[in-house]
Amino acid sequence: MDSQKKLIGAALTFVVLLGVALYVVKERGDSNEVTEDSVPELPTLDRDSITALVITTPVEEGEPVPVRLERDGDQWRVAGPVQADADQSAVNTALDKLMDLEITGVAAQNASSHEQLEVSDDKGIRVQVVAGEETVMTILVGAFRSRNTMVRLAGEDTVLSVSGSIKYAFNKELKDWRNRRVLDEEPSDVVAIRFQSENGDYSFQRSEEEAWLQLEPEGAEDYAPIERFGPTKVQSIVSSVARLRAVNFGAEGMSATDAGFEPPSGTVTLTVQETPEAPEVEEGEEPAAAPAPGPPRTIVLHVGAAHGDERELYLRRVGDDTIYVVSQYLADRLRPSGEDLQAPEPGSEPATPMMPPGLNLGGLGGPGGPGGPGGPGGGIPPELMQKIQQQLQQQQAAGS
């Protein structure tokens, strides 16, 4: 009798649970029984016809501010909330992802799933695609699940899954859409550099043998040659400055005084002289004369005050109204002291340099290679060691 009651109780429990499950499925409306005709189609986009992108990223507090990117000929610009050059690579990545949207299925069909899949109006990244005066598509980009990204057309309940990860291409702050390139020169084209700050006034010129020489700065009151001057120290800084990138930007409308440029805490003056590439010579032809270097150009950078409580400082390029923000490390390199430009004392160099993972020695310094453990040569040649040290310094500067 007891066993019969237990069976009846178990059956009633199963019926109740089944009813609850069916009710939940009905309420969600997310049945997997989706026909091909019920899958919404995304509008077909013509990349060359797209004239603007408006991207709104959710924020934790306050109202999100849309970033408007507009095509300007072959380039893209940030048109709002500020007027600035755009990071062409970032814009092209976003366009690539929009052109390659591939629907893999339907993730949900009911608005109750929008928040969980991060495509609700307050959680999804809104991407508006504009061609001329017409908005041709607006989607909300959401979560990445099972190798697919959740996407919803604005105004629709259905959530689509599209192939691959695309959210990273749109999930950016304003600074990440802007061009953070301060300088983009070839380090080999920098023929002279001068550093002026409270740490000292130092001037250097590249010789015909490609070595850096210390000069007496023009108009300097006190001049003394740097003891144990290390030319590679100058070259390391030149390599950093020539490809200088900012980490952020000053606030819109910030004055030069507010940024600490009057007077600056440091000034760097570069002389750049480009050497044109030699024309290609066909087999059997006489080599052409070496092309003459172009006229020298002068570039002046000012280091300003600290950027709030961050370990960052303001920086500007004279002649450019943009106020950049650079790391403390890089700002210190732009204001070197005499000690920063010295070669190590004899005998203080490490016997074996620490090699970071992924450093490519071209097969010369690794295990089994010439100069490496187990290879011929017994040790790394001095000239190669110098190149390795320069590469390490350049990697450290680039990582800042």
Task: Round the Cα radius of gyration to an integer and report it.
Answer: 30 Å
- Provide the β-strand percentage band: 25-35%
Unreliable runs = 23-34, 358-381
Number of helices, counting only DSSP H or I runs of 4 residues or more: 6
C-alpha geometry: elongated
List the main descriptive attributes of the protein structure presented here.
alpha+beta, 6 helices, elongated
Task: Write structural notes for this entry.
The chain contains six helices and 17 strands. It has 400 residues and is of the alpha+beta class. The strands form two sheets. It has a nine-stranded antiparallel beta sheet, with no helix packed on it. A hairpin with a 2-residue loop joins β2 and β3 (75-80).
Helices and strands in order, then pairings?
Elements: H1 2-28, E1 52-56, E2 67-72, E3 75-80, E4 84-85, H2 88-99, E5 103-108, E6 125-131, E7 134-145, E8 148-153, E9 159-163, H3 174-177, E10 190-197, E11 200-206, E12 212-215, H4 231-242, E13 248-249, E14 266-272, E15 297-306, E16 312-317, E17 324-327, H5 328-333, H6 382-399
Antiparallel strand pairs: 1-2, 1-6, 2-3, 3-4, 5-9, 6-7, 7-8, 8-9, 10-11, 10-14, 11-12, 13-17, 14-15, 15-16, 16-17
